[in-house]
Each structure stands twice: as C-alpha cells, then as structure tokens.
Amino acid sequence: MIAASQPLTVRFGRLPRRGLILGLSTPRVVCVAGAAGTVIPALTWMGIVGALMSAPLWLSFVALAFAPWNGGAAVETLPTAGHFLARRVRGQTRFLARPDAPRPAGTLALPGDACALRFHIDGPSGAAMVHDPHEQTLTAVALIQHPAYVLLSPEEQGRRVHGWSRSLATLANGSTARIQVLESSLPDSGRTITDWWQTRGSEDNHQWAVHQYQQLMRRCAPSAATHRTLIAIAIDLKAAAPAIRRSGRGITGAAAVLSREMDALGSTLIGAELRLVHWLDETQLARTLLGAYDPGIDQRPTGPLHSSLSAAGPMAIHEEWHRLRHDTGYSCVLWIREWPRVEVPSHFLHSLVFQPGVRRTLSITATPVPVSKAIRDIRRAKVEHATDAMQRARIGAITDLADAAELNDVLDRERALVAGHAELRFTGMVTITATTADDLEAAVAAVERAAIQCGCETRRLLGQQAQAFTAAALPLARRVS
Description:
This protein has 2 domains: 9-92, no CATH class; 93-189 and 207-473, no CATH class. The chain is built from 14 helices and 17 strands. It has helices at 26-53, 55-66, 74-89, 154-172, 191-200, 208-220, 241-246, 250-271, 282-293, 350-353, 371-395, 401-418, 437-453, 465-473, and strands at 9-10, 68-69, 72-73, 94-96, 118-121, 128-132, 137-145, 176-187, 225-236, 275-279, 316-319, 324-326, 329-338, 344-345, 359-369, 423-434, 457-460. Strands 4, 5, 6, 7, 8, 9, 10, 11, 12, 13, 15, 16 and 17 form a 13-stranded antiparallel sheet that branches. The chain has a two-stranded antiparallel sheet with strand order 1-14.
C-alpha cells in the first residue's frame, strides 16, 4: 500500500525586535534616559513638588518611549511624521505634470525620487531596461505564465517550489541586487467569458450542464479578475563592474551583463515549470506603468504617448498621510509586517491572491545578502540575545518564549549558511487601488481580512505612501527602506 504524500509546508521566522537594552531600541532608551534625567534631579532637589512640576517633561519622554503609534513606539514613528510634514510644507506631497516643460531625454516621467530613473532599449533582445543612477542598478521586467498551482498534486507542488528556490539561489550568487515578483489582480467585467458562451455555447436551457454553467457565469462573472505575474530583476552595477568592463563599458556593457542574467533566469525558471513569455519592451512597460497610476486606461483608446516611457507617468499625484491619490484612482500600500509563524502550506497566500472584486498588486522583493554580511548579522544577533539574557537575569526579569523563538530563528539562519544556502531578505507589500476613497477603505478592509486568513500581519504605511507605491506597485525592483 502506497502512503499518501505529505503536503509541503513552510514556516517563517519572526520579525527581529532586538534593541540596545532589554529589547528597547536606541531612540526608546534615549527617551527613558531623558525621563530619568528629568525626574531624579527634580525629586532630589524639590521632592514630590519638583516631580509634579517637571511631570509634563518626563511624562512626554515616557509617552514617546512607550505609547504605541502605527504598530510601534511613538518615538520611532516621529521621524517619519516629521519628514512627511516637512515635505508637505515644501509642497513635495503634490505633483502635477507639465507638458510645456519637457523632461530630459531618456528619463522616465515618474514623480519623487524616481524622477532620476533612465531607460535603455536593448538592441538584441528589445527589452526596456531601467537604469537607476543613484542606486547604481539596471532592471529588466519579464512576463510570466504559470498553471493553477493549487490544482496540482502535492508532489508536483513540491517539485515546483524546489525549482523556484533553486532559481532564487542561482540568481542570489551572482551580481543580482534585487528580484521582485509582482502578482496583479485586475477586476474584469467577465465579458470575455460571456461573449465566448454566446458565440459557442449551447442554447438548450433544459440540459443540466448548460443550466449549471449559466448560473455559474451569472454568479462569478461580476467578480471575475485577470491575473498578471511579472518578475523584475536588477543587477548591481558596482558588483558587476569587472564584467561590465569586459563587455564594453558604459550602459551598453551593463545591458550585456543584464542580458546574461536574463538568460540565466529564463533557464532556471524551466525547473519551476514557469514559462517566460517575453521581456517587456518599451510599449509594454509604458502601459504597465501607466496602468498603475491610471486604472481606467484599459477602457480608453491608446495613443502614441502610451507607448513611450518618456511620457509614461501620472498627470497628478496628491500624497496624504494614509493614502495616495493619483489620476483616476486612490491607492493604499500595506506592508506585510509578519509572515506566518506556524507551519503553513506553500500556497498560504491563496486567499490574498484571489480576493474577489479588489484591484491589488502583491509585491515580494528578495534582496540577496552577502555571506560575510549575513554572518556578521547573525553574530551580532547572538551577542544581543546573550546580553539581553544576562541583563534580564541580573534584574530578575522573566524571559518569555518570544525571545527563545527568535534565537531559534537566528540559529536556523546560521545552519542554512553553514550548509551553503544563500540568504535572501524578503519584503512583502500589497497595493490596493480603487476609484473612490470609500471603495478604497472597503477594499483595504477586505485585503486585511484576507491577510489574516493567510496568517500574515499587515500594517498600513503612514507618511510614506508615495515612496511605497513606487516600490510596491511598479515593476522596477526598487529598494524598500
């Protein structure tokens, strides 16, 4: 008798919460020290009266250190709030395109810190490559097709997961700076399905199969969605400098190096049963960027400006504290703060990916970590754990299970490095887009519920929605801070 195959499960480590002293970050320690430095001299010199007189000051320090704000201490969110306020005072939270002021040749028409991005059309492949002169990266985007993963057998699922992990490991050991996977769900009216049935379907409503299919179309067509998967790969021009010099120097040499990484990605995806359809050219990438800012572009006729990257940008942007307004829509970016902490199946994101009636983009960015840096981080984390344990023992504090679980995650990372595996840091973000502010809030609530079903904890990014939108909704493999 053949035993049934066990389903493939995965588990993620906890988000590290190490600090300077007893798990407190440096800003929180400074606030605690400020409170102690205020109340102790006041008590010494004037007693209770001095403590009461100085209460507004030392209570403010205590509130900054321990009052929660956006999922963290107030003092840790305060720099973001100050930066947003300064940008708002200077008028940097609003953007209006100026057709009368043409942009420099070869640059993308994006707002904010993405305005410096340049594009290069590779001659041999025809792919549109995006050059970031500040981060020193060069990026190309591929369109991927794949079958329904959840309908496969456990053996087939395990084989494809293993193939995808080998693809990531192969790219992580080269000059790759980042790998970004974008899975976009675009609401569809269902006209394609209904039109096909009206053309080729049967009109005999007395047949049981015909009746059931018509009921299925009436129920599911309004919530139908089109899914699109993109993979953006960015190479580090500094790390690839020797190869670029051998390939002709300049942007041409960098494009040749990136082309080799593109070929390597295409070959490694075969093991994961993923089909690389093509690399996006200028027209396709321009349409992708425009669609992120203008959700209604698919229902309008296209013109020559929609095919040029020099004009593929928003007409207007208004960044608010908790959302972003752009062209014909509103958007909000959620950060996946915690991944599942228990054993979950490899398709644990199914509820989030197939959330009906919501226009959203799931972005997962993998950043390779050099082995030397990964080892230093692990040693630092182990020292911090040991120091915290000694401090807790000295003051008689109780050690909780969360510290032990975090230490086990660090040891698992160390074992993986010793075994020869590459270390990748994953950042997950979800961009939700709607046509009105009320629809956006309803969609955000639905996505947050779906994330809970997946075992993930999300947080709305406050005060940095514009920068997060560029990193999470656009296939540019941008660095996520």
